[in-house]
Structure formats: structure tokens, C-alpha cells
């Protein structure tokens, strides 16, 4: 056939339209200008489904930087950039809400929930506790289904009738109250509850016999509403054995999506402490040869870690520069010797031993610009505070001024063959320095063990690494999409971790720009992070009321702990043995865990403490119970918490451990440990407690802003 005989294709033919996007993409890849808009036919999508599909394609082109192809598609379809975000979000929400759409009669929802309540009430005493776990998730999903199907009046009546059945001591009372703020389908699409429920299932652990009786009940009565919720929105983690008691269930209840699965805590973890480096002690020669040498005093038994624990990881499992003896400088060795000396003079806080405390007040701070974060170096010589205006102040508190690098003429005079870190430093003329760089509040600061670096994170979403020798920002790490809530250094330096509003956990190295690990798994903001004393693990907590333990080696989550009823605000490891973890929340509750004891969450939890446990005292308002700081004593026998109201409270956890071994922990009717206070609460006049830390000799150091 001759070329003249070929029919001339129409511009609106399917062949031409299908080839246009690919042609534009090819043009872009070779760097040419796209064809003019007149060469393309314009066909606007008619239905909402077509718009959503095209918007998703346009979003994909924008994410990959294909701007020419994106522009051509905009001109052809008439959808602009402002509509892309709205349409794609609307598509995601519609897919989620579509799971709740149903043609079920509106009265069936209420009848189904009443049938479930009746089934739980009439069940055996041994299974009633675990079957009652179904009430909250079924209540929440039923309420959402009523709103999605435009039964707003029925949803309001349903909530008012059944929400009061959940008492104030319910683990999910805050979520139930949050549901009351959603009254129509439009609000539901913008609520974080539906965001949480849209992908994940609510996890409930239940015996196989209880699950079979539940399914038999709803299938025999053909309760379709319960069948749909059970299949689409709940995950029943069934097991063989005896049903759990109410106390065992309450110990792990409260997580945003229930409790962890049974297989989530089966990985082996090594929580033992590593051997500390051998550093030869420097002895001074006698000044006078004829002076008789003094007889050395016998030394007390050392508290140093001269060998690895049996459960300690291999020292080379994760490279820890601070423990490699051949890499230690003269200054590092001096720091280790100072640490060993403090160990010999450490006071063990047990029995009638009194607790000594020092409070550092941040003075002259603007009432509208208070410190948002405070930290103190491990040797208690440097205090750093991050403020709401983005400023960071570094202060010397050990008596001497801050260290700084020598001037350039002084450095040129040094012998380059014998150049060490200690030779290039000198004591500065000022005890304080000011660091500027953040454009918003600084929510997290952490000083490296060698006091050479400072890590900070804040409202601007950046993580900054500062040099404490030249007091300048070395690098700005940009990875978090939203504000950074906390940063912390590894106990042996080199690594530091950051967490934030984007629900991610990132591990950085001081000599690299990009993170070496990025972990995700939390269902809401991650608010706090802390390295394990052996440097191989990181514990994190967040607003999903779940604690996760991450292995730095491979970035996997090796433990999930639930039991908090409010957002987790702070956590602390016991540096005496590495087995114990304490976590606290904004509701004034502290949970004390033994991670080496078992793989079951209800057995890992040793005790619950409350800042408002004492009888005969005025009950604190909820907003005053917010725990802002938490720390173990260096000997591991005390656990101390500080509140936003300015109270410092300590518990004798050594006595709790003894009673726990004998299963004789004294508790209140609500399950909180009682009569374990080590002292009466210390109170400031108005200053909140922002930071707590025990010095190497077990003196309690506290810090906070001075409030008038």
C-alpha cells in the first residue's frame, strides 16, 4: 500500500491520545521544549472517578519531577495543580470510608451492639474479661459506620446511650471522648481516628474457645453488622490455653490499635552491658627523692565492668568507637579515669540514705520564649538549653569555663607530629555560648559523651549537628517532613537518633549526611527516643501509646509494649544492668518493665506507679500530672520522675523487684504500686521540671525555667 493511500488519522483518535503523554515524556528526557498546547486536543474528564484517576497520575508525575509531562496533562484535562492534592486526598478517604458503607438498616447497628453486650454479660466468668475487649472497637466502628451512611441523628443517639458504659478507668476513655468531636461524614474524613483505622486492624488477643463461641453466637443469629466489623476491622490473635484475667488484660490495654501480636516479641535480644576499656592509671612521681614514699591505701572493690555480661552482644556487632581502646585519645583516657574515680565514690541510695538534689534554674528567660528542652552532659559539667525562638545556649556548670579551639596563630605554633585533640583546645574566657540556626522552637538537644558535639532538633523539621569546639553548626540534616520532637546520642558517641511528627525513627552518624537507618512502625507522632546502655538498641515511644525497641544492626522492631493510657512523654534505661526500662506519660503514670524476663507483655511489666497515689493529699488536676522527665539512679535502686507542676518523686524500685520475685507487690484497687515512695515529693515554687539526671556519684540534678 502506498503512503498516499493511508487514511489520515483524526486528532481525536485513540491512537493519537494514547501516544501524547509518552511523547511529552520523551521530549522531557532529552531536554527539549514540549509541543505547544494547540497541538493537543482538550478533553476534560466528566465523572469524579475519571478526575480522581487522572489526579493520581498527575501526582505521580509531579513526584518524579516530570514537569513537562505534568504541564501537558494539565492543559489537556483542565485539572490544575491546586486540584491534584484535594482530589488525591479525596480518593484515599473515599476508599477508606467505602469500607464502612453499607445498606444495613439503621436500627440494626444499635441492635447488634446490644446483642454483643448481652453476649459478654452472659458469658462465663472465666471468659468475660477477654470477651469484653470487643466492646470498645465494635463501639467505635459502629459509630463510624452510622456517620458514613449519613445516619447522623442515630449516631448521636448511639453515642449518648452507650458511651457512658465505659467508665473513667477505661483504657480507651480518651479515644471515646475524641469520637464525640466527630458528628458528620465530612468531619470524619479529616479526623485522625479514621486515619488510624483505615489500614490497620485493632488487635485483640483471645483464646480459641472464646473466639469459637463468639463466632457461633453471631452466625447463629446472623448479626451481619458484627460479622462485617469482625472480618474487616479486627484482628483476633487467638491462642490455646487458659483465658487471661482482668489484671493481665489491663496490664497491656491502652494502645491506639490494641496490643501487640504474640509473635511481635519473640526475637532474641541481648541487653547485657559491654566491658569497659582498660585504661592505665597515671601516677605522679614524687617531687623529692629523699622523701619517703607514702603507703598506698587499700582500694575498695571496683564497680567497673571488667568483662562482658553473659547476655551482652558482641562488642563488634555494632561499631562503637568509644569502646575501642586503640582509638582512645589522651583526653578520652582521662575521662574514663575520672569516671572510674567517681565510681569508687558513688553513694548507693538504699535504706535510710538521704537523697541530695541540685536544681538549675534558667533565669531571665522571656515568658513568651521559655526553654523547650534542656540536657546536661554525662560528667555534669555542661548544661544546654533549647528555646522556643530557635536559640540554643550552652553553659558551663562544673566550675570552669567552656572549652574552645585555639586561635589559628596558636595552632600554627604546635608540633604537627604530636598534634592531638587536647593540644588544640583551651579554656575559653566565657562560661556560656549562644548557637543560632533553627527557625523554630528547639524541642530536643543532646550532648555527645565526649562533649565534642551537640545534636538538636526542632519545629523547622531539621536535625542539626553542632561543634562544641568552635560553636558552629557543622551540618543540617534534612529528612524529617514535620517537627522533630526528640534527639539523643548513643552512650558511646558517633551515633545519634531523632524522632518526630512524621512517625519515623532515624539514626545518624556524625561523619555522614544521610541517615544510616530509618525505621517506621508507630501509628502516630514519635515523641521520645533513648539508646540502650550497650548502644545496640533504641527505645521509642509516642502518641500511639506504644513503646517499641529497635535493633540498630538491621533496623527491625524486636519488642512492642503496650499498657499506657496516655501519650508517652519520656523514658529511661537503668544503666546499672541494662535490663530495666521505665516509661512515663502525660497522664502521670510510670510503667516499670523488665525486658529480660519474658516475651509476653503482661509478664514484662513489673509495676505501675502514679504521681497522684498518696492518700490524704489533694488530687492533682490532669494537666498538672504531666511527667516531663524520668531517670534511674546510677546504682539502679531509685526511679525518679519530674512533673510539669514542679514535683520530684522517687520510687524505691529495688524493693519493688524484691517483692515482685515473691509476687507480693503492694497495689491499690486500680492496680498502682503503693507504699514505695523513697521520699516525700520535692516541690519547686513555680518552676516546671524539664530535665532530671543523676550524677556519676548519685547526686540528683534537675533543671527548669524560673517562673514568676
From TrEMBL:
Primary location recorded for the protein, binned into one broad class: nucleus
This protein's GO cellular component annotations are:
transcription factor TFIID complex
Which SMART domains does the entry mention?
WD40
Query: Which cell locations does it reside in?
Result: Nucleus
Q: Where is the composition biased (Basic and acidic residues)?
A: 1-20, 39-49
Whereabouts are the WD repeats?
435-468, 477-518, 519-560, 561-603
Asked whether the keyword Transcription regulation is assigned, the reply is yes
Q: Name one GO molecular function term.
A: RNA polymerase II general transcription initiation factor activity
CDD domains in the record, alphabetically?
TAF5_NTD2, WD40
Report the domain of life of the source organism: Eukaryota
Locate the compositionally biased regions of type Basic residues.
294-305
- Annotated ranges, domain TFIID subunit TAF5 NTD2: 104-234
Q: Which residues lie within the region annotated Disordered?
A: 1-49, 285-316
Q: What biological-process terms (Gene Ontology) are attached?
A: transcription initiation at RNA polymerase II promoter
InterPro entries on file = TFIID_NTD2, TFIID_NTD2_sf, WD40/YVTN_repeat-like_dom_sf, WD40_PAC1, WD40_repeat_CS, WD40_repeat_dom_sf, WD40_rpt
Q: Name one Pfam family in it.
A: WD40
Q: Is Cell membrane included in the keywords of this UniProt record?
A: no
Q: Which UniProt keywords apply?
A: Nucleus, Repeat, Transcription, Transcription regulation, WD repeat
The family classification in the record reads: Belongs to the WD repeat TAF5 family.
Q: Which PANTHER family match?
A: CANNONBALL-RELATED (PTHR19879:SF1), TRANSCRIPTION INITIATION FACTOR TFIID (PTHR19879)
In its UniProt entry, what is this protein called? TFIID subunit TAF5 NTD2 domain-containing protein
Per the UniProt record, the source organism is Oikopleura dioica
